Amino acid sequence: MLGARGGSGRATMWVAVGADAQVSGGVMGRRKPRTYAAEWLAWAQDEAERPHVPLREDELTMKVQRARYLPRIVVKKERAIVGRLYLGLNVLDVADQRDRRVIASALEAAGYEVRPPIGGWDSPRPRWRVYVNAYMADAWTFGFGGGDPRYEDGTTFGVFYPESEALFCLSELWFEPGREVAEWHGFRVGDVVDQVPDDPEKTSKYQGLLEYPPPRIVDRNARAASRSRRSALKSPRQLPATSRQLVPGVVADAADAVFAAEPLDPTAPTLAGDIGWGSRSLVFDVDELAALRKATPLLELPAETPTALEWARGISRVHELGLTAFRLRTLAPQWWAALPWHDVVPDPARLGLLGTDEGDGAARSGQPQLVQAIVDWSIPQPQLPAEGANAHGRFLLVMGALAHAGLTAASDRLATGECLVCRREHVPAAHELDTLLRLRTSDVCTVCAQAALLRQTDLIPHPERDNAWVPFPWTSQREEAAHEAVRTLAADNGGPPSRRVLAASVPWTSTGDLVRQVLLRIPLPRDHEPGGAAPAWSTLLADAGVLGEGWRPSFGVHTVAADGHPCRSLFERYIDDWFFARGVVHTIEPPYPYDAQLNPNGMRADWAINGVLVEAAGLSTRSEYAAKIARKRELAARHGLQLVIVVEDDLPDLEQVLRTALQP
Fold first, then answer.
1. Which among 217, 250, 405, 636 could bridge 643 via Cys, Cβ 3.0 to 4.6 Å?
2. For the chain, which domains are there?
């Protein structure tokens, strides 16, 4: 143990790592690199002496930038960032330490305070090229090579804790540079140590920062090829002829216009190989699957497991582990409820597996090893239904049980496939659970999938600003295509389509159906179109000519359904047209029985089918309407009537919701 120091009267314990340690627990727990202290030190010393043209104060510009931990002033020369002043602690980081005094002078002239070196501005600058970053509110990282476009990788060589004045460097070779760099940036250093604080959260985060490969100059040809690969992954080509033939030409043209604008794909791999939020997908690689087995107990699986596995594989082989666990929650609810996971009440003000940062959270769950694996990043925390800590914990237990049984194999998170719609290369593993359930396949790229579900993802590069995105505009071409798409979808359904239904799922029985349904949705307006340019949904339907005879009261849209029945909303219209298209005999507005307390004024239901009353509760979020529906429920129960309440979320699965009414 080389040092220990307490801050604010509290002792800080340190756990030995050592200069040549093989540290696991890096990014997502997959990276197990070696230490390259000497190589990086030599690189940083050489870089500090490279030829340099000094900056002038009159060529610098400044801009305030908000950040998660500390706001900062970004200093630029033309478009290049040459310095950042972290406000609060007034720490200045610069691209070249030889420019630090000039940049500090410009900032002070603009009214900003800059923390000087411990020895004053006349003290010698560090002999190494370094960068400084506010990694967290209570910790600063020092590193070599970061942000240099000539190098593929950088390395963080030190973490400094201002509260305890302790500097942690993984190698003793970095002790002297670490102290010089810290004091040059105005930090008073007490102890320099080669040990990590005995704090699980900091240990898992900082160890992953401190070991990266040695400096290597980037092969420009290889980088160009990598950029080309990223471009292929992020930019769909024009629609293939086989896809264009499935939809009206104007719809295909509008889809091509969106694709040609290169919409943002947040899940495409970066140059480093990361897939946006893919670490939270339902996919586990070999190491993660082994860690999952180790962290979970052996459990007996229910008899419904083969059925769940077959269902999951029908959607996505790469996601079969998580999908099988999800299906078992429905198929075997009693087994699910009996899983050895203690209910934990999550704190809504916090995030994470347990919904709490308390140290006893893992113990309270009953599965401390499983929780610790998440904290250490040994296994991902999947993007699962937002039902608090207990749903996450039980899902992971079931995934572990499936892994123990060998029913599901590890998957390659970076494996690519060809999108069925646009034929571009994409990463199936990047799909979240919600998308898989709505689309029922991972063979469609995320750009097409999000468009099919009417989500606001069709962002395109800003015409004038780098790294900025704007929504794809609502153009006359898109409006014409939307009208044609709506008419086609209305013909398919027997009536005007509901936006809620279109956004909830994509019905298909063949790949051709899937491609057609996705393309028909691409030109449609999203829930939040920019600038109010897109029409309201009811206006779009009216302009497309699919509403027939109808009128707009103060609220809602009154139309006449395909069978001539009047409807007070598009929600009612969709259900009535659904009945008519399937030959379901239905009576409109059947009366409820008289009841002096609950029904003195003669309330009516929306439909009656085989003696079962059916209500379309499209305004259930309104308190007065919800109270009326509750009174109808009580009335039906009192008089022994069967009543089915249909809400908008039920529209994609009406046959199941109405099963009691549809059975004669």
1. 636
2. 14-209 (no CATH), 230-273+415-471 (no CATH), 282-405 (no CATH), 566-662 (3.40.960.10)
